[in-house]
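lol ok so funny story. i was supposed to be doing the assay writeup but got distracted and ended up predicting the structure for this chain instead. priorities right. anyway since i did it might as well share w the group, maybe its usefull for someone
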Amino acid sequence: MCLWITIYLAIALALQLAFGNIDDRLFTFPVGAALGVGALAILYVAEKEWGKSRWIKDMRSSKMACLLIALSVFACIIGGCMSANSSFQSSIPFVALLVALMVNLTLAILHRIITRHKKTDWIFIATHVGIWLMLFCGLAGSGDNRSLRAVVSANCDTTSAIDANSHTVSLPYTLRLLNFNIETNASNGSPTQYEATILIDNKPVEIAVNNPHSFNMSDDLYLMNFHRQADGIYCVFMIEHQPWKYPMLTGIVLLLIGAVAGGVKRAKPHISERIKDIDNTISTTRV
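and the output, tada:
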């Protein structure tokens, strides 16, 4: 098992040295979703047809899961020690580790579903599907996430924004500043809070620092900064485009439900035993 993982990561490292980091745009919708569905279909056939073979058992085993999790944690520590400009999260070895972990989770889930191993499998399924959703949204959704900055004033409608690569991106809505208020510190006059009222497609919306506005399922609007010019105030807004955030939140909720249910299930026999001991003590005392 360790040998295959070593060979797998060595190939990933060689590809990294030859081609560099993976371009997130390769996973933009619908390519990322199609790759996920295709991989799911292939793994289903593999589990259905060769589920009893040694190599499939090794790929879905708990030992493989522990090994991959340990390597992923180690990789995250390494990535945390590197500079922010290194884009370690899009490196081929790191992505390869996450893909291997997803394969392990997928095979384990499919095995439980196909074999119907236990009646209480819903706890296992909820926990593992939750982790799977989080990983899938992080990988397949990475190409769809965008962080844009838009400068908005009261002079004209804003219809475009700038992305992280300084490219101009057209917005599917218009933004215009309607009102701007600043709260200052009485002692030194420094700003303590500021808020703006803007028009989104001519509909007024109030936005303050640390109080963003969600105007659809994927876009959140944050007030970041402001500048005073001779012709008025210009506000800088950050637009976070995250179309996969709700599936990821679903994964987090499923993981929490499974973890809590699993903890209650494991604690229940001990609680019952403790209650019996208390009842026996009370009965002995009465006698």
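The chain has two domains: 2-144+244-264, 146-241. Strands lie at 146-152, 158-162, 168-184, 191-200, 203-208, 213-214, 219-229, 232-241.
back to the writeup now i swear
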